[in-house]
Amino acid sequence: MLRPEDKEQLAQKGISEAEAEAQLARFVTGFPYLKIKDTARVDAGIFRLTDDEAAAALDRWHEYLSHGGEVCKFVPASGAASRMFKALFEYVDGGTDELKEGTPVAQLIAGIDKLPFLPELDEACGRLYGKGYGELLKEGRNRDVIAAIVNADGMNYGGLPKGLLKFHSYPEGSRTPVEEHLTEGAQTAANSKGEVHLHFTVSANHRALFQAKLDEVIPQAEARTGKKFFVSMSEQKPSTDTIAANPDNTPFREDGHLLFRPGGHGALIQNLNDIESAVVFIKNIDNVVPDARRGDTIKYKEILGGLLLEIHDQIEEDLIALEEKVYTASDLKGMVEYMRTVLNIDDPRLDDMADDELVEYIKGKLNRPLRVCGMVRNEGEPGGGPFIAVNPDGSASPQILESNQVDPSNEDYKKMMATATHFNPVDLVCYIKDVHGKKFDLPSYVDPATGFISSKSSHGKELRAMELPGLWNGAMSDWNTVFVEVPISTFNPVKTVNDLLRPAHQIS
């Protein structure tokens, strides 16, 4: 199905012909649903730490930093804020100033004085209409005020990335999520030299804006925190774009050229693979709070980091014992027990394996990237959740699953999804080097069968689009995973602009 000019286009993107053919074949076959053993719950796949266990983890984290341990904060920040302002765009397009009680726009107008970008809004209104936002609201010109927030000729908040919007007001001025991540990094991830390493993934069309903001705020953050910041950025690689297909699964073309689409956040496994630090925190750009409300976030970020190190310490001890062949049959049993009770790996074959076979099995399971994932109680927020899933080799292990990976016709699975106690807030800490300090090749641990296909359109023509396995689900499918309960106070995302009115995003 590929033409000579297609192959040239693929080469320019760094996509092999074999990969393109595999993607087209996947449109035909689809992606299989995952086999689920059970939901993960407290004491059955999710750890709830005691005070003593939490204190030990904190000590281990502080010890790691004090001895020069390397750590980086990795923040996906390429998303545009357009969905955050969906209700506002609809109101502006609605053609009336009328406010219907209880609607998002009515609630926003009622709480407008709590917004962190009032000076910018006032300036935009003055520039566009010759009056401040307060005067416009008194005149009933609600649409003009809302338009000044989202439209390109106003503040253009509907066209900017979330990371560059004003989120929190302080006496000295408002801060963006980028600035809050700098501050959080200084409080949790500064090494023994007082250095903080952060990496933001951004879109190509916003990179210059991010750079300008960083140039402006890094000196301020360094003065405020007393730390030295080293901030890098990257974009999704063209080689992670996926080919689009027609409804009949043939390649979709525009003007004779193949159409490619971004591969979703799973593409970022390539960007994560370029990070040099052994320990990497991953957290979404919009999950930040002001200084006065960050206590739990700092505490549990450090607890997750310390627990990661404690688990890595044990894995290192076991793998070196196996490599150097200094173990007993009793030691092997202890390793299997650790896999079952801490890593939640189970395999019905384990009890029948001979020692030599068992050694190779343990090596294969332990010598992998490791992540510890904070999980919060399910309070109806959308998103994936923690499950115990069955892997292609027949073993079971913890996995973060999204709803599109679960067979909707399986009543048992639907019941599991409905009764899940926790969900994934994207609060991860990862160890991406092996016990000898060599970096793992992270793309090797992706389960390619965990992507999904959706229906889209381009210029009015229907097409099928493919997303790569998600960053924290299929892209990390073959990692060792530990789930830990963290308080809901550590999860305060801004999905709509009205979320900024919540107490969690107010400084007092």
Structural domain tally: 2
The helix count comes to: 15
Query: Would you give the CATH topology of the largest domain?
Result: Spore Coat Polysaccharide Biosynthesis Protein SpsA, Chain A
Architecture of the largest domain, according to CATH?
Alpha-Beta Complex
Based on DSSP secondary structure assignment, what is the total number of beta strands?
Answer: 19
Assign a percent range to the helix content. Answer: 25-40%
Task: Please give the alpha-carbon distance between the first and last residues.
Answer: 61 Å
Helix/strand class: alpha/beta
Radius of gyration: 25 Å
Mean pLDDT: 95
Strand content: 15-25%
- Principal-axes shape call: globular
What ranges have pLDDT less than 50 throughout 5 or more consecutive residues? none
CATH class label of the largest domain: Alpha Beta
The largest sheet is:
10 strands, mixed
Entry summary:
The chain is α/β, with parallel strands linked by helices and 508 residues long. The protein has 15 helices and 19 strands.
Report on the architecture of this protein:
- The structure is a single chain.
- The chain has 508 residues and is α/β, with parallel strands linked by helices.
- Helices cover 35% and strands 18% of the residues.
- The protein has two domains: 4-81 and 177-329 and 336-344 and 370-489, Spore Coat Polysaccharide Biosynthesis Protein SpsA, Chain A (Alpha-Beta Complex); 82-159, no CATH class.
- The chain has 15 helices and 19 strands.
- The N and C termini lie far apart (61 Å).
Task: Describe the protein's topology.
Elements: H1 4-13, H2 17-29, E1 35-39, E2 41-42, E3 45-47, H3 51-66, E4 71-76, H4 86-93, H5 104-110, H6 118-129, H7 133-138, H8 142-150, H9 177-188, E5 195-201, H10 207-225, E6 228-234, E7 242-243, E8 253-254, E9 257-258, E10 260-261, H11 268-273, E11 279-283, H12 295-323, H13 329-341, H14 355-366, E12 370-377, E13 385-390, E14 396-401, H15 411-418, E15 422-423, E16 427-431, E17 452-458, E18 461-467, E19 480-485
